[in-house]
Amino acid sequence: MPALGPFVLYYHTACTVFWGRAIAPVAILKLAGAEYAIKPMPESPSGAGFAVPMVTFPGGYTISQTPVIVHSLGKHFGMVGSGDADDFVSNQLLADSADFLGEIFAGKPGIILNNYITYYFISLTYRHSGSYQ
């Protein structure tokens, strides 16, 4: 069984004003039933990454970059699946999600955002069937 904590997530205002890019890691920690704390950015370990969010794992190492954090937490809690195909596909979906978030922040029109949502629906439905071919 993977270690359930304590994890420490660092983010602006310790997520008291907004969740921003910290929402996905927090959702994973909650889903896993992990013990975690959220601390403000100034308390993050120096040199652990360029920007928040950052997460310190029970083993004492700290990582940053939302897609990397999400994938690492997913692997830690057995949420990524097994084998190379699952690992590769989860990384692709994380990269797609980073692109999607960039489009949202750029204020792209709804049709583009809807195309991403349709892609995710089809992709996750298809991939949930167990067929990656």
Task: Sum this structure up briefly.
By secondary structure, this protein is of the alpha+beta class. It has helices at about 25-30, 65-75, 85-105, 110-130, and strands at about 5-10, 35-40, 55, 60-65.
SSE arrangement, N to C: EHEEEHHH
What's the pLDDT, averaged over the residues? 89
What's the β-strand tally? Answer: 4
What is the H level of CATH, i.e. the homologous superfamily of the largest domain?
Glutaredoxin
Oligomer: single chain
Basic shape:
globular
Please give the alpha-carbon distance between the first and last residues: 31 Å
Radius of gyration: 16 Å
Which stretches of 5+ consecutive residues score pLDDT under 50? none
Structural class: alpha+beta
- Strand percent estimate: 5-15%
What characterizes the major β-sheet?
4 strands, mixed
CATH class of the largest domain: Alpha Beta
Question: Any descriptors?
Answer:
four-stranded mixed beta sheet, Glutaredoxin
What does the model show?
The protein has about 130 residues and is of the alpha+beta class. The protein folds into 2 domains: about 5-75, 3-Layer(aba) Sandwich (Glutaredoxin); about 85-130. It is about 45% helix and about 10% strand. It has 4 helices and 4 strands; from the N terminus they run E-H-E-E-E-H-H-H. It has helices at about 25-30, 65-75, 85-105, 110-130; strands spanning about 5-10, 35-40, 55, 60-65. A 4-stranded mixed β-sheet has the order 2-1-3-4, covered by helices on one side. Helix 2 (about 65-75) runs antiparallel to helix 3 and helix 3 runs antiparallel to helix 4. The mean pLDDT is about 90.
